[in-house]
Amino acid sequence: MCGVIGIVNDERAIDKIYPGLLVLQHRGQDAAGAVTFDGGFHLKKGNGLVFGVFNAKNIERLEGRTGIGHVRYPTVGTGSAEDVQPFISTAPYGIALCHNGNLVNYSDLKRTLIEDELRYFNSNCDAELILNVLSAELGRMNLKTLTPDKLFKALGKVYERLVGSYAVVSVLANKGFLAFRDPNGIKPLVMGRNGQGYCFASESVALDLLGYHDMTDVLPGQAVFIDRENNCHVRQIKQGKKAVCIFEYVYFARPDSVIDGVGVYEARLRLGEELGKECLKQGLEPDVVMPVPDTARGAALMVAETLGVKHREGLIKNRYIYRTFIMPTQTQRIEAVRLKLNPIRSEIEGKDVLLIDDSIVRGTTSREIVALVRSVGARKVFYALFSPPLRFPCVYGIDMQTRGELIARDRSVDQIRKSINADALVYQTVNGLVRGVGQGAAGFCTACFTGAYPTLIPEPLLERIEAERKSAQASQG
Q: Which of 186, 205, 346, 434 pairs with 218 at a CA distance of 20 to 30 A?
């Protein structure tokens, strides 16, 4: 999970890229970067939060009316400075590119590019791989005239070589702007207009902030090219079965975003209603329902309404602490829970408390939250999740690529309950998840819950991805 933004032909691009990245900061807190173009590329990127990477001096030099930006949450690579996006290629034309997603065939494709096409790589980031594949396929075209048809034909070859999730924004020097999305649409990408300008971003909230309208999603397998004359060319490059990451609605996206026509906040309200029904089935009778901030707020409201009990805020969040799920080590996650959340004793003491959360991945954070609530006098602590048990690794860009990281991989619900020391544990069902998010409609990737991957993932490949992930974790200490 990362965040991307692209600005085309609209005043100084960086003046919109920077605030756009700030509003997408929740999608990646590890690194940030931007490229602008005004006849030449201007690049600034580095490790850290957006406001730490950019300052008035380097923003001033990022001239140009077209550009792209990125916030990183590392999936492929070690998270080193060399892996920070965007990346720039000098040929053909000069291309700057960044993406949100994860290539499943990263290792095989990189080996092919190195051994057969004599490509050299400066990073372990799959965005650099996509850039090189795009450069190679464009290089096989007539370089003197790049028509939309030639570009889309080259892109068809790119799609044949990439397996996994990708939502890409890129600038082709003196040619135009290109955005495209994988055939399953696993990662989101939305576009909008403002006069003659265009904006592309991972979430609609960025377009809201920047004043763009006429919003539409870049469809799965679709590419959009804005040429130098500001003409917009749209082409369906490859057809695939729509499989939008359902975890976007559960955890990643901001509640004020709309992804593929589904409002995130409305989806979480429906998920809360579905979860409330599960709590009724299990006979839970709490005194109070409390969200684990922030993602669970909408769901908690509906759980309380369904159960007919009080809804209260019992955990107050320190907003200057990173999201714990995307912190790289378990020690950091444990320390961050205490720094991030503080209980309101008067709302908890002497009560049976039902905590609503989005998910349990490793169990570390949930265990600490339960202990925190007990420490201020809760009589009983119930825990309910508006997503099902996470049992399968994600290979598309969520930092849970090994089975060993998932507490539900080989444990029953009761074993998990005991592990986090809760008095009761209730999970959403898979059917309830799909009903809640999509109102029963198909078109979601639920692989982390069901093991049904939208792209072909042979078991040996899963095992190799896990081994590579474990090796990367070991190298980070």
A: 434
* One domain, residues 344 and 433: yes
What average pLDDT does the segment 15-37 reach? 96
| CA 439, 442, 448, 452 torsion-angle sign | positive
| Token digits of residue 335 | 């320390």
Looking at residue 247, its pLDDT comes to: 94
Per the annotation, the verdict on 2 as an active-site residue is yes
Q: What CATH number does residue 329 fall under?
A: 3.40.50.2020
Round to whole Å and give the CA distance between 332 and 309.
35
pLDDT at 475: 59
Helix axes 264-281, 430-438, angle to 10 degrees: 150
pLDDT of residue 222: 98
Q: What average pLDDT is seen over the chain?
A: 91
| Residue 236 sits in the same domain as residue 281 | no
Residue 142 falls inside a structural domain: yes
Alpha-helical segments (H) within 254-402: 264-281, 297-307, 330-340, 345-348, 364-375
230/324 same-domain check: no
Question: Both 79 and 186 in a single domain?
Answer: yes
Instruction: Indicate which CATH number applies to the domain containing 220.
Output: 3.60.20.10
Strands 213-217 and 258-259 turn out to be unpaired
Say if residue 238 is in the same domain as residue 267. Answer: no
Domain finish residue from 242, 275, 304: 242
User: Could you give the percent of the chain with pLDDT greater than 70?
Assistant: 91
What is the number of domains present in the chain? Answer: 2
∠ CA 213-220-437 to the nearest 5 degrees?
75
Is the pTM above the cut of 0.90?
yes
Token couple for 324? 């714990």
Question: Do 131 and 30 belong to one domain?
Answer: yes
Range of the domain at 364: 263-475
Domain for residue 56, yes or no? yes
Q: Are residues 274 and 230 in the same domain?
A: no
If one counts every other C-beta atom within 10 angstroms of the C-beta of residue 261, the result is 11
Q: What is the pLDDT of residue 169?
A: 98
Nearest to 445, CA basis, from 267, 183, 186, 166: 186
Q: Are 238 and 293 in a shared domain? A: no
* Rounded Cα gap, residues 49 and 69, in angstroms: 13
Q: How far apart are CA 162 and CA 164, in angstroms?
A: 7
Residue 121 reports pLDDT greater than 90: yes
- Judged by DSSP in three states, 453 sits in coil
Instruction: Name which of 139, 109, 123, 131 is nearest 35 in CA terms.
Output: 131
Angle at CA 295, nearest 5°, toward 380 and 247? 110
pLDDT of 72 higher than 80: yes
CA–CA separation, 450 and 29 (whole Å): 28
Q: Are 14 and 4 in contact (CB under 8 A)?
A: no
State the catalytic residue, choosing from 2, 98, 445, 448.
Answer: 2
pLDDT in tens, 407-438: 999 999 999 999 999 999 999 999 999 999 98
